[in-house]
Specification:
The complex is a heterotetramer, with two copies of chain A (about 475 residues) and two copies of chain B (about 220 residues). Chain A contains 16 helices and nine strands. With about 475 residues, chain A is of the alpha/beta class. In chain A, the strands form two sheets. In chain A, strands 7-6-5-4-3-9-8 form a seven-stranded parallel sheet. In chain A, strands 1-2 form a two-stranded antiparallel sheet. Helix content of chain B is about 60%, strand content about 10%. Chain B has nine helices and five strands. In chain B, helix 1 runs antiparallel to helix 2, helix 1 crosses helix 4 and helix 5 crosses helix 9. The relative contact order of chain B is 0.12. Classes of the chains: A alpha/beta (about 475), B alpha/beta (about 220). Chains in contact: A-B, A-C, A-D, B-C, C-D. Chains A and D meet through loops of A and loops of D. The structure holds cobalamin (2 copies), iron/sulfur cluster (2 copies) and zinc ion (3 copies).
Chain lengths: ~475, ~220, ~475, ~220
């Protein structure tokens, strides 16, 4: 059953890295209990999984996790989180994902025993429900495989269950490219939220059964796609900023169903979610540049309970393997944050993080502590997902507008024009969810099988 | 002359309705479909492509332009086919097996179409067989493969090897792209080219077509 | 002519990142004038230089410098320094180094004109005087080629001239492996300093003639070799820490001859040199982990006027090419430092940097602001290089000893034993330089051609 | 029995003088040089190597041990040669052309010698010819190459190719190492092995020797 958050857990002055209202405790690791911990993730270098010799993939994972743990010990790091993001073949073949999970859990156990290195293992199967067009979100065999993957990884030693679910993406993909705000709302706040409810009921169930933790989801398939396209100059940054704000509505559903964090690293909307839920969040920024270039390298740190590198291939650089390098960088970043906290000064460092990025890019500005809290507030004031989306979309436009006029945010002429344009579309949105949904359902009927979202299908013939 | 410019301008502005009407008018005035295509529609798109490439235009704007171009094309194309007009060239595109990322590939398709190429998009998760069939069926000038995962980029080589084995490799140029791809990798697996973005992909295809024609 | 620094330019409270007593101004770039700038460096991926097609190497360098500048523009960075560290074939063939320098200078000029991106180009030829055993430091053809390389690069558009000179290395290499303190002193403070005098007279001359800047040297061939070996567990960390302190005596010579900074990134002894000379320094830490893993990822930032990535291969990671990723990370690091400075709080951030690393490793502890100033003080109190080396060596042992007893520094039992041992050796060193030199000259006569250091040779037969 | 243990202990402690004296005594008591070598000198070194590998010992300590071992060896070796004793195997080592980094390679040499292998060190900046000559002259079991620069590691492949061409490749195992080297690279260029540090290098050489003997 879904509850709805109706008020904020944090005001702007208490929204700090390392501190959650409800820290997560498991094994000897505490997340959000005052200190920021590194979360390390890695992936295979160019590899043909199908054609690799039996055991070869496993041995690469074993090598990586050993090397990063050794580095952590070397640098006197006492706890960390390792994320295993399954690749598609590892999810489609749940036994394969299970075997690697078991291996990683085993290595972490070894380091726990031999060096006292405390750790948790997050597993993130891929959302494989994209094999057909339109995708089968509930009725396909892939959905079964996906849940099986969760179950088997949980049994094999995972601690935290996450996914980067893609419900609604068949609408958001083209909407991002066309800077189509209505499409974003439909795909994110309507379809996306419906899918999240379904998906997270199941995951929370699996977590409860297996004694693991339902951690959280991210709408990065929407928000980060927009960010990457904006970064390449394909779409306006102001649009990507507004998209980011709206994704909070979608990702929030996981916590309203029962996920307890830590939220997944690549969801920058976690900033808003932390203000709302008070749950611990993983964030990523400059030390994840190996995976995503971004305009939010420092400001993302404001909210980190875990600090992640997002992902890096196991390739050799001059000093060593890339995951080891990431491990080292994350540890130093965490040391700095934790030192300021030990001095009772995390607020100051957080403000520097924010100030250093905010004025240069609307996507960074939208993540400023004050803004994050304001956006959280308009979300919890509504109880319908579409209306939450409209409210946070409008609010973000308004905030960006104001920031620009007051000289707190740089925008090019073209960006300004787009901000106006998005503002106009936002102001014209219907307040009645049903009206909106009916209109959009028709528009996207070629792309979406509505029954897969628990909605009534629109026959394709009707025109 | 004026007509062509008018068409080009409507295309540039992304006005589909106006572009369609102007093409209609031009045809009724007896303008040649070839010139309408080249000096009107494509000329308009060329300006936009250049602006897009130099970062002065956003994709949603380009999509509107592509829409206007398409509106005009729909009228002109049947006449061109009748006159056995050849497009600038034909490109088969697909994201390789196991990979569902398609935004980058879609962008490449849009930009190529805008530049006047015929594009056959095979979609995502495209297996070797499908690439081979498409080459046999469509007789493209260029095959373009996209991959975003380090574990799927390796399939590009498989496709190239299979093309060789079926003796299709010499018939087509092979180009590749996607975030994990580098120029080095392209050379290594024996592709004819790599482009880091959609605008460059168009230049690359043009260059390869020129080379091919010179030979 | 060599002058001698006899007092410190900074006390501990004024020794801050971004601030030099004598900032360097050239073109529109100011180094040490209040803000920290990124210094970016890159190298070829695995490449056979000799067999590569003409123009191929150049095109890779062009591609890299363009990509990093684009990223800098994208992130609104207004100034930066690019370092071109020549590889051996590019120094042995001065025309090749010249061509790449010209190309890089040209690209930087383009970005200056088209985007207003201000920049300086540092060139660092390789010390190629190692082709023979014992090396010919003055009489070989390589010395000529090296100076020619400097001259041609200077003419081709370089702004800053640097080198990582290796004089004395024929003694320090085996001494590091044997943890032989006397050998370190002989190789660093005696041979190293003699070679520095010779080398830097020449470089300052070339800079003056060509209107470029004689920037600085590093004893990283000694200090970082020890650091890397300590990191791999081969030699005690306390030994590497003492070696680091001693290298300051060697690197200081460049500034006593006339170099004006910015000191070269990889010399962590720059911390001490900044306290002594007040000149701007380049430093590297966590964002140089791609090149050197280290125990000083944050603390090195305390002294940075330039903040460097040391070097990274041009290989593709998930988000883009590795040099672009480094560029982004450096920019975010600089933003944070500069934000604290804008708020008048750089001292606080500097102290956090220091506090976060110092207690965990003696090599970090030795770089604490207070320690750095103390070490600088004992150096400037002496006017003979050997005596400076003895003083700073003894002082560093004393400081580490005290820090450990007061619980400010963690040391394993084995490290403690070694610290005692090093302390004993240090206390037994003769105070008379001539006595020491005579003894060591005999010991190392198979390894060194003393004439190459302007010293009287010891005939190998005498036994 | 006691004698051998005594020797081993002096070696472990790095006492050159004591080790030498104990070996002298053992020989005069009629102990066999083979057993002095294996149960005394090498046994002592083995303990040290294991400690070093597990990070319980520093290199300067190992160097002292190596010195003690050498002191004993100098007495034993002539007798062994006389008895036509064979060493555990012979390894030719060198840093490749254009590369002057030798600390890593020197460490490998020290550890191999300590483990009882004969090592011929060709030094730094070793050209292809020199590697080939050494193989022909020394008949090593293993050739080890070291490279620290991304622009010199490529020469490793050249050496392997040249060995093939001279039909020397099957006679030796080739191993490589150095900071930029990875297991992948070793496989790619057709080396027989890669080791990430000196201790592992010893294990690797032992393993390759075992394999070779089994064949
Ligand atoms: C958006 C995105 C997604 C979206 C995809 C939406 C879609 N319809 O495509 C979603 C959310 C579905 C997704 C899913 C996954 N993703 Co994803 N994704 C991305 C992201 C953020 C951006 C990709 C993108 O669209 N970029 C924008 C376009 C315009 O750029 P582009 O693709 O590079 O294309 C340009 C050029 O490369 C070139 N080009 C592209 N193709 C071609 C072809 C030719 C012929 C030519 C000439 C040129 C060319 O031109 C294009 C236009 O300029 C990247 C991160 C990144 N930095 O790239 C990760 C990334 C690719 N994904 C990654 C991962 C791990 C996944 C998942 C496995 C995650 C998971 N555990 O669930 C799944 C896998 C799904 C699958 N089976 O394929 C990793 C890959 C890591 C690895 N091992 O290789 C990345 C790198 C993220 C990261 N940093 O970890 N992802
Ligand atoms: C010390 C050092 C130097 C010293 C070398 C001293 C010496 N006598 O060797 C000096 C100062 C002279 C030097 C010079 C240069 N260096 Co240098 N150097 C280093 C440094 C810091 C450490 C290397 C080292 O000794 N490590 C310690 C040993 C124990 O480790 P190792 O070599 O990896 O060896 C171990 C294993 O790899 C393995 N192993 C090694 N060899 C073999 C062989 C076999 C068969 C096996 C099985 C195993 C094996 O076992 C060893 C023991 O465990 C590295 C940085 C780094 N992170 O590695 C840079 C580094 C290698 N140098 C670099 C550079 C650029 C240079 C110069 C060009 C600098 C300049 N512009 O002047 C010159 C080039 C000189 C030349 N012609 O070769 C770069 C290379 C970049 C690139 N393009 O590839 C590096 C990576 C530094 C960096 N981050 O940028 N360097
Ligand atoms: S955007 Fe980054 S994080 Fe999200 S799915 Fe794609 S890759 Fe994973
Ligand atoms: S230690 Fe680091 S920096 Fe110094 S020479 Fe070697 S590589 Fe260049
Ligand atoms: Zn992610
Ligand atoms: Zn250096
Ligand atoms: Zn350097």
């Amino acid at each position: 059953m879904r509850k709805r958050f109706t008020r904020l857990a944090f005001d702007a002055d208490h929204l700090l890295f390392g501190v959650a209202r409800t820290p997560l405790k498991r094994r000897n690791v505490i997340i959000g209990g005052g200190a920021v911990l590194p979360e390390i993730k890695f992936t295979l270098p160019p590899t043909n999984i199908e054609e690799s010799a039996p055991g070869e993939i496993e041995s690469v994972y074993a090598e990586i996790v050993t090397a990063v743990c050794e580095r952590a010990v070397h640098l006197h790091q006492s706890s960390l989180v390792v994320e295993f993001e399954l690749l598609p073949p590892m999810t489609l073949d749940p036994a394969m994902g299970e075997a690697i999970t078991a291996l990683l859990a085993g290595k972490l156990e070894e380091f726990r025993n031999s060096h006292g290195l405390q750790s948790l293992l997050r597993i993130t199967p891929v959302d494989i429900r994209e094999q057909y067009k339109p995708p089968l979100r509930r009725s396909g065999r892939e959905m079964e495989l996906l849940f099986e993957s969760f179950r088997r990884c949980a049994a094999a030693g995972a601690d935290l269950l996450s996914i980067e679910s893609t419900g609604g993406k068949e609408v958001t993909d083209p909407s991002i490219m066309a800077a189509d705000l209505r499409g974003i709302l439909f795909g994110t706040a309507v379809l996306g939220c419906a899918d999240m409810e379904y998906m997270w009921e199941a995951i929370v169930g699996i977590a409860d059964e297996s004694g693991t933790i339902a951690a959280g989801d991210t709408a990065c398939g929407i928000g980060n796609t927009a960010m990457v396209l904006a970064d390449q100059g394909y779409i306006p940054k102001v649009f990507a900023a507004v998209v980011r704000a709206i994704t909070a509505v979608r990702s929030l559903v996981a916590y309203e169903i029962g996920a307890v964090g830590p939220g997944k690293d690549c969801g920058y909307e976690n900033a808003i979610l932390k203000a709302i839920t008070g749950l611990p969040m993983s964030m990523e920024g400059k030390s994840a540049a190996c995976a995503h270039l971004s305009p939010v390298g420092n400001i993302a740190g404001c909210y980190a309970d875990l600090w992640s590198n997002e992902s890096v291939q196991n390739v050799k650089l001059l000093s060593g393997m890339a995951p080891v390098i990431s491990m080292e960088q994350l540890i130093y970043d965490c040391r700095l944050m934790n030192t300021s906290a030990r001095n009772g000064e995390s607020l100051r460092l957080r403000n520097w993080f924010a100030e250093s990025d905010a004025r240069l890019d609307p996507q960074a500005f939208i993540l400023s502590p004050d803004v994050v809290v304001e956006l959280g507030r308009v979300i919890v004031a509504e109880s319908n997902d579409y209306q939450r989306g409209v409210a946070v979309g409008r609010k973000s436009v308004e905030i960006l507008h104001q920031a620009f006029s007051q000289g707190e945010l740089q925008l090019t002429d073209r960006e300004q024009q787009w901000l106006e344009r998005i503002g106009e579309t936002a102001s014209e949105l219907p307040s009645d969810p049903n009206l909106f949904v009916d209109e959009e359902k028709v528009r996207w009927r070629e792309h979406v099988k509505y029954a897969e979202y628990g909605m009534v299908d629109v026959p394709a013939e009707t025109n | 002359m004026e007509r062509y410019e008018e068409i080009a301008e409507h295309v540039q502005n992304g006005y589909s309705e106006k572009a369609r009407k102007a093409v209609e008018a031009a045809l009724s005035e007896g303008c040649s479909p070839e010139r309408i295509l080249k000096e009107g529609l494509i000329a308009g798109m060329d300006v936009v492509a250049a602006k897009f490439k130099s970062g002065q235009m956003f994709l949603p704007e380009v999509l509107a332009v592509a829409g206007a171009m398409k509106a005009g094309m729909e009228l002109v194309k049947p006449l061109l086919v009748a006159a056995k007009h050849q497009s600038l060239g034909k490109v088969v595109l697909g994201t390789v097996r196991g990979d569902m990322h398609d935004i980058g590939k879609n962008l490449v398709a849009i930009m190529l179409q805008g530049a006047g190429f015929d594009v056959v998009d095979l979609g995502t998760d495209v297996r070797v067989e499908k690439f081979l069939e498409a080459v046999e069926r469509e007789h493209p000038d260029v095959v373009g493969m996209s991959a975003l995962l380090t574990t799927t980029m390796v399939h590009m080589k498989t496709v190239i090897e299979a093309l060789k084995q079926r003796e299709l490799r010499t018939r087509v140029k092979v180009i590749i792209g996607g975030a994990p791809i580098s120029r080095n990798f392209a050379t290594e697996i024996g592709a004819d080219g790599y482009a880091r973005d959609a605008a460059t992909a168009v230049d690359l295809v043009k260059e390869l077509m020129n080379h091919a024609q010179q030979q």
